[in-house]
Amino acid sequence: MNAVLQTPASVVSHVPASVDLVEYYYERGFSDGLPVVPPTQEKIDEVVARLGGDPSFVEARIAPRWGDLTREVLAINMVMAGCKPEYAPVVLAAVRAVTQQAFNLNGVQATTHVASPLLIVNGPIAREIGMNGGVNAFGSGNRANATIGRALRLIMLNVGGGWPGDLDKSTLGHPGKYTYCVCENEAQSPLAPYHVEHGYKPEDSTVFAMAAEAPHSVTNHISNDPEGILDTMCSAMSTIASNSAVLGGHIAVVLGLEHAETIGKRGWSRADIRNYLFANHGNRFIDLAYGHRYGKVYNRNLPKYYKREDNTRIPIIHSPDHIHLFVMGGEAGRFSVLIPGWGHMSTPVLQPIEGSSANDNGADCVGGACAL
Questions:
Q1: β strands within 41-115, DSSP E
Q2: Which residues fall within 8 angstroms of residue 65, CB to CB, at 6 or more apart?
Q3: Residues whose CB falls within 8 Å of the CB of residue 372, separated by 6 or more in sequence, listed in order
Q4: CA-CA distance, 86 to 51, in Å (whole number)?
Q5: Is the CB of residue 95 less than 8 Å from the CB of residue 51?
Q6: CB neighbours (10 Å) of residue 154?
Q7: What is the signed CA dihedral for 123, 124, 130, 133, rounded to 10 degrees?
Q8: How confident is the model over 43-48, as a mean pLDDT?
Q9: In this structure, is the dihedral angle defined by the CA atoms of residues 45, 50, 51 and 53, taken in order, positive or negative?
Q10: CB 3.0-4.6 Å disulfide test: which of 260, 267, 275, 369 passes with 327?
Q11: What share of the chain is helix, strand, coil (3-state, %, to 5)?
């Protein structure tokens, strides 16, 4: 496998013209289960040029097998995923985000949980390459969304070795393990973009990466005020079924456009929304402990400063800063989405694209990437 990926030119030159290349790559084990685009040398070279040239340059090492991701290998996986060359800066930023120590890709690749890297793009580049943050944002039909996320997954498989049943031990997985990439609907959002909230300029572009469960639909067709909509989100957040309920960590809250407009018309800011959600969600400790019917529960994963008394309210995340708020979706439908994270084992990362630079965030930022 590695020889093929590292010396694509020699492999292509030795494959007879009569060979079905799609089936050939299935047989070689390079696919995520879907057909791949055969990576011709011409296509590889075009992507490598977009990445800065020098095909042997190592951009990252990919856990858990810690394979070297050269620009050539990155390009090969992008081509196989169906990416256009102009997607290269986004894919590269995504790779840099998930290979930050704070993200813990080694754990994400090998966990029995369903976690998969969620990518959310902000800034002008999302519009330039035609990404979809509107109608059916998390669904099918957009090449950039689908292939950028898929390229990252192919890299995690082919370079990181995260194959199901081998090093990937996910009990069930979820469809985001094919591709899980969207952008914020900045053009129609009543709120400032996510990356602006975190110190970037509107003209900057970023990739947000979080180890995440699948989207959980949050429906409210009744409320015409922020409190009612956000109370529904609090209910969704407070399920005891997610990792977050007992392991903390981070979550993403995606407000659908109608919900966001209702909230925005009342003058609520991003901080208002996050603080309301934090203050009004949570579970009683006794419920998280299943009534102690299986024995006395303490839960060392919770912060020491939480009381373990039966009626103590335990939030699923331990700071409003751990709520990552986005606005997406089409104009019709009063739906939003909750996306729980993996727990405290992984920290989301916000990565600039093509030289964007955030305000100085101190020790949390290394090489331009900020652990949130």
A1: 58-62, 67-70
A2: 159, 160, 161, 167
A3: 198, 250, 321, 324, 347, 348, 349, 350, 364
A4: 10
A5: no
A6: 27
A7: 30
A8: 98
A9: positive
A10: 260
A11: 40, 20, 45
Q: In degrees rounded to 5, what are phi and psi of residue 100?
A: -65, 145
Task: Retrieve residue 100's tokens.
Answer: 């930050």
pLDDT score for 369:
63
Tokens 């299986």 locate to: 294
Question: Which residue, among 270, 194, 283, has the nearest Cα to 239 in the 3D structure?
Answer: 283
Q: CA end-to-end span of the chain, whole Å? A: 36
Residue 9 corresponds to which tokens in the numbers above? 């030119």
CA dist 344 and 346 (Å) reads 6
State the DSSP code for 62.
E
Q: For residue 372, what pLDDT is reported?
A: 74
Contact by Cβ (8 Å): 95, 105: no
Residue 365: per-residue pLDDT: 60
How far apart (Å, rounded) are the C-alpha atoms in residues 297 and 300? 9
User: What's the predicted TM-score (pTM) here?
Assistant: 0.93
Encoded amino acid at 174, one letter: H
Report which DSSP code applies to 292.
Answer: G
Q: Measuring CA to CA, which residue among 364, 369, 324 is closest to residue 349?
A: 369
CA distance 26 to 199: 44
CA pair distance 127, 78, nearest whole angstrom: 20
Task: Give the C-alpha distances (Å, rounded to integers) separating 186 from 27, 121, 191, 194, 330.
Answer: 42, 10, 8, 9, 12
